[in-house]
Amino acid sequence: MAWIQIRIDANKETADLISDLLMDIGCPSVTFIDGQNTPVYEPKPGEVILWPETTVIGLFEATHDMQSVVDYLTEQMPEAPKYKVEQLEDKDWEREWMDNFHPIKFGERLWICPSWRDIPDPDAVNVLLDPGLAFGTGTHATTSLCLQWLEAQDLSGKTVVDFGCGSGILGIAAIKLGAERVIGIDIDPQALVASRDNAERNGVADQLEVYLPEDQPEFKADIVVANILAQPLRELHEIILGFLKPQGAIAMSGILEEQAQSVADVYAPYIELDAIKQEGEWTRVSGITKP
Ligand SMILES: C[S@@+](CC[C@H](N)C(=O)[O-])C[C@H]1O[C@@H](n2cnc3c(N)ncnc32)[C@H](O)[C@@H]1O
Q1: How many Å lie between the centroid of ligand 1 and the Cα of residue 274?
Q2: pLDDT by residue (tens digit) across 259-280?
Q3: Which end of the chain is more exposed for a tag (fewer CB within 10 A), N or C?
Q4: Residue 192: which of 166, 157, 219 has the closest Cα?
Q5: Dist. CA 258–CA 145, nearest whole Å
Q6: How far apart (Å, rounded) are the C-alpha atoms in residues 259 and 168?
Q7: What is the DSSP annotation of 32-62?
Q8: What is the torsional sign of CA 185, 189, 191, 195?
């Protein structure tokens, strides 16, 4: 089907009004995108954070009378909107989206593969994972940094805590790399569902347990991975370190380059730290508990 879209300049105050007006006139899809380049890191579950400059995009069937859309917005808004109407190329959008995901290799032997792709190396350690509602497909640098670290560990028979498990990608990879048991913890119930589903798809559901933080069991693991953000990593260091056995190993990410030292400083009294590893603007802080 062919589509046409209207892009409207908005801000935090007007974005919702424009979205409501577009819905009023039967717009089948409204999207908010960043009008500039203002990253929003990890909204809380259910929270919608808008950018100071937001572009609202309304999608219509190509035959729709776009002048009537513009007239309606102009009539209803306090000020005439700035907008641009664009004809969209007639493509198979689902195909287009799927075409952007490919198997990715981490280290020597670990692959994350979307289910609709051929597995490049059937003898490798393959995790099947499709993009879904929870964070973690392997394309983000923070996930990549943790996967590379896990791949380089000897996980045979080990226990693992995946703190901030999202899609479950790190915990599932750990099991496929030899870990015996993984506890996944996340504040987002959707992440727990996604982790369970993904574990089932990978045939490792009986080795992965998932919990909300308020239900998390007392547990000591050989390995902890925590890809959350610098601030919770600092604030929750006692809880996170509380999961580690003596001589346990930990890797943390979700840490921007300029935040890495502050996270390292908080963990340094307890952890023999490795060199900080960087990918793009993101870093990984890792090490082994001090005796
Ligand atoms: C960046 S995603 C990481 C997902 C996955 N582990 C990965 O590496 O791709 C961070 C996850 O941590 C969760 N999270 C954020 N703060 C948390 C907290 N204080 N306790 C537990 N989970 C948290 C978020 O809901 C989100 O699913």
Answers
A1: 22
A2: 999 999 999 999 999 999 999 9
A3: C
A4: 166
A5: 17
A6: 25
A7: EEESS------PPTT--PPPSEEEEEEEEET
A8: positive
For residues 246 and 286, give the distance between their C-alpha atoms in angstroms, rounded to a whole number: 15
What ipTM does this complex have?
Answer: 0.99
Specify which of 86-100, 126-140, 231-245 reaches the highest per-range mean pLDDT: 231-245
Query: Would you give the DSSP letter of residue 131?
Result: -
For residue range 96-127, what is the model confidence (pLDDT) as tens digits?
667 778 899 999 999 999 988 999 999 999 99
Mean pLDDT, the chain, whole residue set: 91
Between strands 125-128 and 110-113, the pairing is parallel
Delineate the domains of the chain, giving CATH numbers in brackets. 3-90 (3.30.70.120), 137-289 (3.40.50.150)
Task: Out of 186, 193, 224, 236, give the residue to mutate to test ligand 1, the one with the largest number of ligand atoms within 8 Å of its CB.
Answer: 186
* pLDDT value at 205 more than 80: yes
Name residue 271's beta-bridge partners.
289
171 ligand 1 Cβ < 6 A: no
Question: Smallest Cα–Cα separation from 146: which of 118, 168, 124?
Answer: 168
Q: Whose CA is nearest to atom 1 of ligand 1?
A: 228
What is the C-alpha to C-alpha distance for residues 85 and 227, in angstroms, rounded to an integer? 40
Is the CB–ligand 1 distance for residue 134 below 6 Å?
A: yes
- Residue 175 scores a pLDDT above 70: yes
Q: What is the DSSP letter of 80?
A: P
- The CA R_g of the chain, rounded to the nearest whole Å, is 22
Tokens describing residue 36: 């500039």
Atom of ligand 1 nearest to the CA of 143: 8
CA–CA separation, 184 vs 226, rounded Å? 10
Q: Is 150 in the pocket of ligand 1 (CB under 6 A)?
A: no
